[in-house]
What we know:
single chain, 547 residues, alpha/beta, TIM Barrel, 2 domains, 3-stranded antiparallel sheet, globular, GltB
Amino acid sequence: MKNVFIAISLLVLIGIVITGFWWPPIYWSLPVILALIILGLYDIFQSKRAIRRNFPVFGRLRYVMEGLRPKIQQYFIESDTDGRPFNRIHRNVIYQRAKQEMDTTPFGTQLNVYDNNYEWLNHSINALHFNAANEAPRVIVGGPYCTQPYSASAFNISAMSYGALSKNAIMALNMGAKLGNFAHNTGEGGLSDYHLMGGGDIIWQIGTGYFGCRHPDGNFNPEAFQEKVKLPQVKMVEIKLSQGAKPGHGGILPAAKVTEEIARIRLVELGKDVESPPYHRAFATPIELLTFVDQLRQLSNGKPIGFKLCIGHRSEFVAICKAMVLTKIYPDFVTVDGGEGGTGAAPLEFSNHVGMPLRDALAFVYDTLTGFDLKRHIKIIASGKIVTGFDLVKNFALGADICNSARGMMMALGCIQALECNTNKCPTGVATQNPHLVRGLVAEDKKTRVANFHKQTIKSAAELMAAAGIKHPDDIHRAYIHRRISADKILTYLDSYPYIPKGCLLQKPYAKQFELLMTISDPNSFTPNFNNLNWEELEWARKPMTN
């Protein structure tokens, strides 16, 4: 192909010269032709791209088509029920509710109701009038040692940092939260000026980098924390142990991205790489975690303090619960992030194969807290692909008191699922720091869409509850949600995740599914302890020794 390209180039040049004797205007094509020939010669002699080297100029079409592929797939090939992470049906209902357009669907469902994993809600013959269910349920977050409990909406904005999202997106989200009377989680990037501009309620998330409340060496700074947490807009504080997108994975903010503004917000050194380790430096055991919770509660003058995690080793959460019973220190809330969550960039393997999915994790956390008789002190927040009223209802059924949404709120802002969050080229100005793209997102306009989406989604959940004869999320039972698992078998959530009795993990005999976890978990360590196992009964579980 290289020889063919050279031959064609020579023939085209000769043809232009000869034709020019009779028709001189053809010489105007020479700059374009010469540019293509130079580009082709560059492709031939470069050594990094084999396709361009073998197919000069034409090989570049591969990259053009590769860039267009997601757009062609989304707009011309996918059906309404296809598409990942969110299909067109879900994206459309978010846009419609955000814009307060008609969100009803004609001619019945497009879903195959006989597919495995199809889910539905039981309705009641004695259904309630749709106005009877609470369309704006509030949840009081605050345990026995919280002196400033917070009345939270049942649906809020999940954690998204300034830096991952643009300043205009952050402002629009917070102004929308103010307009709709719900809360906005800052993400681990710190409490920025843009989070505070809208006047909406704030959940300040503190991650392993302690951004905004750290010493120069990266350790937690109590004085810096106390200075910010006293702001009246900060209603709750969330310690991030792990997140659904990349649990157990730290990160580095490159020096090139540490601008003066980022350095000021995050309390990091200008022009130097900033590490977010995969673990916390302020604690190393379950008891130390709770001591840290208590420290933050004291420094905040009694505001609700909780932690967020994507469930990994289940024994670790059991160990934390054992530490709660031992120390009598209780977080005010636990946020359960599903392994399917995530709004920004994460390694493929972590996004696809690390972390327990939300449905399983939420049921496990609720049951564990119930088994230790701790649920009465602690509210559960669920996050992970929650965008519709049915998503809210089924997570309430599994044990959530509150639900958070990140990507749903992004789409309410105008996100089109272009899947370019990690490239700084987000075409809607949501997930980019490019000022030319950011200016396209007008916060004053988008704030209303965020508030609309919140209101209509809550209303949809309330109407579903009314159809089931339920007035409040607390009354939803796992038996209300059905799921098809094969062509001839249907299970309720209660069948898949049976409740365990309150307090049954405080003394033996333990619930059978918790026997092993109770044996290997230790409130003094996150590492499971296998020394107390009866290996005569569990010989099948012993790992063979290797040289």
